[in-house]
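Look over this one:
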Amino acid sequence: MRKAGISQHEIAYCIGFSQSTISKELRRNRGLTAYRPKQAHEKAVYRQWRKRSRSCVIEGDTEVVVRERLALKHSPEQISGALRREGQAAPSRTSIYSFIQADRARGGQLYRQLRINGKRRYRHKNKASRGKLPNRVGIEKRPSVIERRER
């Protein structure tokens, strides 16, 4: 459509995207002279490939240590901090949680080693105290002038 001389606004209307999206696509994938659809597709495929998640960073000796400490009911934060203090390769707590979730997806039972079993627990507030203002004065103690409704 661009080679045919159609404006960005008309292209956007025809294919159902905003004009700014068309503008960005043309600018991002422009070659030396003009927009190249084949090159644009190759770039998009490469961007998708690069965006995919990395493989697990916990492997080998580190994996063994993490599994042992989880069996001792240490939290991922404790494991990461202890390994860092000992000067070993220390994955972050987020990496350890990701490792546990990946193990669970494969059918492993590592998530059961967590103290909280992967569930967050919330403290429930006392419903009896909900909506009560501290140090409030009751309506029965209001001045008598209000009852007369003169002002």
About this structure: The chain has a mean pLDDT of 85. The chain has seven helices and no strands.
